[in-house]
Design a protein that fits this description.
Two copies of one chain form a homodimer.
Chain A lengths: L34 H17 L5 H8 L3 H8 L2 H15 L12 H19 L2 H14 L6 H26 L8 H13 L2 H6 L8 H19 L3
The structure holds a DNA duplex.
Chain lengths: 230, 230
DNA sequence: CATGTACCGTACCGTACGGTACCCTGTCAA
DNA sequence: TTGACAGGGTACCGTACGGTACGGTACATG
C-alpha cells in the first residue's frame, strides 16, 4: 500500500550532513534533505532534462548509484520522488530582490526589466521546461500535486514578488492602477507573451540572453507606457 | 515492425460515407476520415478530456465499440491514433474572420477584442487543455509531432491570422509598429497573459465567458494604447 | 450460393516497470 | 570482536499495456 504522507518521509532522517539551507522559500522544500538525498534529486533532475518524466525508478537508482529500495524508503513511491525533486528545485529558484530605497522612474524601470530578464531566463532553461512539462502532464490526473507546486513557485511567486514593487511604484506616484492583479497580468503578459508555451510545445529556437534582454526592456517600457505616471 | 508512414494509413480507405469537409484549414487534417473513424477520434477526445493521454488503446476500443485490430489497422500505432486525433481537432478550430471592409478605430478594436475572446475561450476549454497537455508532454521526447501540430495550429495560426489585421490597421493609419511580430507578441501577451499556463498547471478557477469578455476588451484597449495611432 | 471484405470481440504474447524481498558490505559503537 | 544498521546490488513478482492473431458476423458482389 502507498504511504500516507506526501513530500518526504518523516521517519527516515539520514545523515543530515549539511545544515538545512534556505528556509524562507515560499514552501516547505529542501529542509530535511541529506547530502546524499540531494545527490539523488540532482540525478533525477538530470534525467528529467534528458527524457522528461518518462524515467524509470531503476534508471534513477542506476544514475545515482543507489538502490531502488533506498529510494522507496526515502521517498515512498515514484511520485514522492518526483514531488521531492520538483519541490527542491523550486526552492532553489531565486528572484531578484527589489531595491528598498526610494523608487525613481529609472530604478523602477530597471527593476521591472530585471524581473522580466530573470523570469524569462528561468522559463526558457532546459530544467524549467522539463519541470513544467512534468507538472503540466501530471496536472490533469487529480493525483500528484506537481502542478500546484510549480504554480505556487512559478506565476504565483512572481506575482507575490512583483506586487510590492507595483504598490511601491504607485505610492511613489510612478504608477497608476486600480487593481494590482490586473497590473501584474499585463506585465506578465508583456514579458512572457508566447515564449513559454512555445518552448513547452517544443519550439527549438528559444531566445538567447541577448534577445531576452531586448524583450525584457521592451516589456518594461510598454508596461510603463500603460501604467506609468508622468 | 511498425509502419513507416505517419499520420493516416493511405492504404486503408474505408467507407468514405461523408465527403471530405474542410479543406483550407492550414494543415492536412480531416481529409480522408470516414464517419466511423471520426467517431473513433471523438471517443479519443472524450477520453483525453477525462484522463489526459493516459488512456490505453483497449480503452479506446471499448469506448468506441471497435476492435483494437481495427485501430491499429487505421492508425498504425498508439501514437498515430493520438496524432490523428490532435490533427483532426486542430482542423476544427475556427478563428473569426476579420472584416474585409475599410477599418476604423472601432472596428479594429472590435476585431481585436473578438480575436482575444475567441482565443481565450478556446485555450480555457477542457478539450484544448487536454490537447495542450498531451502535446506538451510529448514535446520533450523527440518522437511524436504532437507539439509541432499544436504549435502550428495554436500560436502560429493565431499569428498568421492576426498579421493581416495588423497590417491593414497600419495601412489605414490606425496602428504604428515596425515589426509585426513584435506587435503580435504584445497582443498575445496582453490577451493570454498567465491564463494558459495556469490552466495547464491545473488551476481550477478558470475565467468564465464574462471575465473573458472583460479581459479581451482590456487587452484590445491596452494594445491600442501601445500601438494605436491618433 | 460462394467468396471476399470489413469489422468486432477477445484471447494471447512480450515487455517494461512499480514495488518488494533478500543478500552483502562498510561503518560505528559498545 | 561483535552486533546493529544504513544502504548498495539484484532477483523477483504482479500487473498494465502495446501490439498481434484468430474466430465469428454482417454485408456486398459475382
Amino acid at each position: 500500500m502507498p504511504v500516507m504522507n506526501m513530500s518526504l518521509h518523516p521517519d527516515t532522517a539520514p545523515k543530515q550532513t549539511a545544515a538545512p539551507a534556505d528556509a524562507a522559500s515560499g514552501g516547505t522544500a529542501g529542509e530535511g534533505l541529506s547530502e546524499r538525498q540531494r545527490e539523488v534529486l540532482n540525478a533525477v533532475l538530470t534525467l528529467m532534462v534528458a527524457e522528461g518524466d518518462r524515467f524509470s525508478v531503476a534508471a534513477v537508482a542506476r544514475a545515482a548509484s543507489c538502490s531502488k529500495e533506498t529510494l522507496y524508503k526515502w521517498f515512498g513511491d515514484r511520485d514522492g520522488l518526483l514531488t521531492a525533486t520538483v519541490r527542491w528545485q523550486a526552492s532553489k529558484v531565486r528572484i531578484p530582490d527589489l531595491p528598498d530605497k526610494q523608487l525613481t522612474h529609472d530604478s523602477l524601470k530597471a527593476a521591472l526589466t530585471g524581473f522580466a530578464t530573470s523570469w524569462l531566463t528561468v522559463i526558457t532553461s532546459d530544467l524549467s521546461i522539463a519541470l513544467n512539462r512534468a507538472a503540466v502532464s501530471h496536472a490533469g490526473s487529480g493525483k500528484s500535486r506537481l502542478g500546484e507546486i510549480v504554480l505556487t513557485n512559478g506565476p504565483i511567486a512572481m506575482k507575490q514578488r512583483l506586487e510590492p514593487l507595483f504598490l511601491a511604484g504607485r505610492a511613489a506616484g510612478l504608477l497608476a492602477f486600480d487593481d494590482v492583479g490586473e497590473a501584474f497580468r499585463a506585465f506578465f503578459g508583456l514579458a512572457v507573451a508566447d515564449t513559454q508555451i512555445r518552448a513547452l510545445l517544443g519550439e527549438d529556437n528559444r531566445p538567447g540572453a541577448r534577445e531576452i534582454e531586448t524583450m525584457s526592456a521592451r516589456a518594461a517600457q510598454q508596461f510603463l507606457g500603460l501604467y506609468g505616471q508622468g
